[in-house]
Specification:
It contains nine helices and six strands. By secondary structure, the chain is an alpha/beta fold.
Length: about 240
């Protein structure tokens, strides 16, 4: 396969980032699948790379503490499956699980063949750095890559919280996070992805692709520090 070099769009991205304003009163942070099933180095059934998982948890915890302190609502979306539906969501998912099960497992639940994020399992718990806190919302009926399809997320954001800006973080950059970015964009939200709070178990190349796609086409990609600066600048103005 021919290697394609990633184009440099830094000047345009810088100009776009300068344009962005984040009003904490109209912003929600949505965490996507930041549960033990992906991020716990012992209990994960579909683990992200351990070093990236640790980074995402630490950076994510830092951002969420800042968000809550500035009145920004936090919403957690978690994939949870009944045993009867684990391999019935999509034929591609079922096939991938069969193929991936032949590879060297990285955790004990993988070695035992534990299905991913079964209802009531430890895998469905959020990582402790992430939450939930009493003020957070938790949506735990995500079934596909989509955080919106079949969940109350859109109603919560639009009707209950009345936000215009959606800040995304979680796993995986190129699937569930990217899907949420597309959906948030199509629904008219200012869409932000936090670069040091996302990771992918599908490879660093697809992680980079996901961030590039958001930055060039869908919204904004900010670091934790850049997000904090945007919020603080708005509060001071």
């Amino acid at each position: 396969m021919r290697t394609i070099e990633i184009e440099d769009h830094a000047p345009a991205m810088k100009a776009l980032n300068e344009y962005l304003r984040i009003d904490p009163r109209k912003t929600a942070v949505v965490t996507i699948d930041m549960h033990r099933g992906h991020l716990d180095p012992v209990q994960a059934t579909l683990p992200a790379p351990p070093d990236e998982g640790r980074k995402v948890c630490l950076s994510g915890g830092d951002l969420l503490r800042f968000a809550r302190a500035h009145g920004i609502q936090v919403v957690h979306v978690i994939a949870v499956f009944r045993e009867a539906e684990v391999n019935k969501i999509n034929p591609r998912i079922a096939a991938a699980r069969i193929v991936l099960s032949r590879e060297a497992p990285r955790t004990e639940p993988q070695r035992r063949g534990v299905p991913h994020n079964l209802l009531g399992s430890v895998q469905t718990e959020l990582m402790p750095e992430i939450g939930p806190e009493p003020s957070d919302y938790v949506i735990d009926n995500k079934k596909t890559f989509s955080s919106f399809q079949g969940t109350e997320l859109e109603h919560l954001l639009r009707v209950v919280l009345e936000v215009d800006t959606v800040v995304l973080m979680g796993i995986n950059t190129n699937t569930c996070v990217l899907c949420a970015a597309f959906e948030a964009f199509n629904l008219g939200y200012k869409t932000v992805v936090i670069s040091d709070c996302v990771a992918s178990m599908y490879g660093r190349d697809l992680h980079a692709l996901g961030l590039e796609n958001v930055a060039r086409c869908l919204g904004w990609v900010l670091s934790v520090d850049e997000f904090k600066a945007k919020v603080s600048s708005f509060v001071r103005s």
